[in-house]
Specification:
Blueprint (H helix, E strand, L loop, with lengths): L14 H7 L3 E12 L3 E4 L5 E9 L1 E5 L5 E5 L3 E4 L5 E4 L7 E2 L5 E5 L2 E7 L4 E11 L2 H8 L5 E3 L5 H19 L5 H23 L6 H5 L3 H12 L7 H7 L4 H12 L3 H18 L5 H7 L5 H12 L3 H7 L9
Parallel strand pairs: 1-10, 2-8
Antiparallel strand pairs: 1-11, 2-7, 3-6, 3-11, 4-5, 4-7, 6-12, 9-10
Length: 327
C-alpha cells in the first residue's frame, strides 16, 4: 500500500457534510399523481432505492410495510429510505391498486403522470424512487428509520427550505418544459438530502454508531479520512496522528463510538468499496486490488474472502453480495 501523506485533514472539514456528499442519486422513476377520492395505491419494494412522496394538494395517508400510518398534508415530505413496499390512500381500508399496473402518461422513460381515482376530492402527489450508488450512501441509509416525515409546520429548519423547493417542483411538473426532467431530478435529490438532514438534527438515533461518531470532532475526522482515502496504508498510529490524539486514547474512543476497532473498520470499509467496484463498475479483481492499495491481487483476495465469506471473483461474476452493515 502507498504511504499516507503527513498532512492531516483540514480542521474545517465537516465529516457529516462529507457523508451527505456521498448521497449522489440516480433517478429511477418520477411521477406526478393526480388522485381523486376514493383511491388507494400500492407501491412495490424497490431494493437499493429510496421512495419519496411530496403532497402538493390535499392530504392522504401513507402506510409503511409494518402497517404504521402517517397522515400527510399539503407541503409535507415523506421518504422511505429502505425502498420498502407501502401504500398511499385517502381511505386505508381500500384494497391498494398496484401502481405499476395502472395506465400512465409517460413524458419520458423515467417521468410520468398518473390520473387515478373515483372523481371525488383531489390529492396531488409527486412520487419517485431514486437509487444510491456509493457505499457510504448505503451505509448511511442503513441506519435510517423505516419512514421519515418532514412537516414544515413543526420544523423551523424545514420551513426555511421545503416550501420553496416544493414550489419549484410543482411549477416544473405542472407545465413540463424542455429539460424539465433534469430539473425535477435535481430538486428531488435536494428533497431527499433535506429530509435526511432533518432526521439527523432531531432524532436520537442519529447520535449512535458510526453516524454518531461522525459528529465527534476527532473520531469523525478520522472516519471521514478512511472514507475519502481507503487506499492509504492506515494504521492506528497514523489515524491517531491525523487527529492529534495518542494511539491508546484514539483506539479506545473510536471503538466506543463506532462499535469496533479502527483497523476492523478500515478493512470492512475497503470491502464495501471493493464490492461496489466489482459489482457496479465490473472492474477486475486485479484492478480493484490496485485501486485499494493492496500489494497484490492475492493479498486483496484473501482479505476480501476473510471479511465477506466469498471470493471477489464470484461477486464480480454474479453481481450478488450483501456485506454486513456499517452501523
Amino acid at each position: 500500500m502507498t504511504s499516507h501523506p503527513d498532512a492531516p485533514i483540514p480542521p474545517t472539514a465537516d465529516p457529516l457534510t462529507e457523508a451527505l456528499q456521498f448521497l449522489r442519486m440516480e433517478g429511477i422513476f418520477y411521477c406526478r399523481s393526480e388522485l381523486s377520492a376514493p383511491w388507494s395505491l400500492g407501491l412495490p419494494p424497490m431494493p437499493g432505492c429510496i421512495w419519496f412522496h411530496v403532497v402538493t394538494a390535499g392530504n392522504c395517508l401513507l402506510v409503511d410495510s409494518q402497517g404504521v400510518q402517517c397522515e400527510v398534508r399539503r407541503g409535507d415530505l415523506v421518504i422511505l429510505p429502505h425502498g420498502a413496499g407501502h401504500h398511499a390512500a385517502d381511505d386505508p381500508g381500500l384494497e391498494p391498486a398496484p401502481v405499476m399496473d395502472l395506465p400512465h402518461d409517460y413524458l419520458s422513460p423515467n417521468y410520468a403522470i398518473l390520473r387515478h381515482g373515483g372523481g371525488g376530492d383531489r390529492v396531488d402527489l409527486i412520487c419517485g424512487a431514486v437509487r444510491l450508488a456509493h457505499p457510504a450512501a448505503r451505509s448511511l441509509i442503513e441506519v435510517l428509520p423505516e419512514m421519515i416525515h418532514v412537516d414544515p409546520s413543526t420544523s423551523r429548519r424545514a420551513l426555511e427550505w421545503l416550501p420553496s423547493i416544493l414550489g419549484m417542483i410543482t411549477a416544473e411538473t405542472a407545465e413540463p418544459q424542455p429539460g424539465g426532467e433534469a430539473v425535477v431530478t435535481r430538486l428531488c435529490d435536494i428533497l431527499v438530502i433535506g429530509a435526511i438532514r432533518s432526521w439527523l438534527d432531531t432524532d436520537v438515533g442519529a447520535k449512535t454508531g458510526w453516524l454518531g461518531a461522525l459528529q465527534d470532532p476527532q473520531i469523525g475526522r478520522a472516519v471521514a479520512l478512511i472514507h475519502r482515502e481507503p487506499e492509504q496504508e492506515w494504521s492506528v498510529a497514523a489515524l491517531a496522528a491525523t487527529v492529534a490524539m495518542s494511539r491508546s486514547a484514539f483506539s479506545a474512543r473510536f471503538s466506543e463510538l463506532v462499535g469496533e476497532g479502527p483497523m476492523q473498520y478500515v478493512t470492512r470499509w475497503r470491502m464495501h468499496v471493493a464490492t461496489d467496484l466489482l459489482r457496479e463498475e465490473q472492474l477486475t479483481v486485479a484492478l480493484v486490488a490496485e485501486r485499494l492499495g493492496y500489494a497484490s491481487e492475492a493479498a486483496f483476495s484473501r482479505a476480501y474472502k476473510r471479511t465477506t465469506g466469498k471470493p471477489p471473483g464470484e461477486v464480480r461474476r454474479t453481481g450478488a453480495m450483501n456485506l454486513p452493515a456499517i452501523s
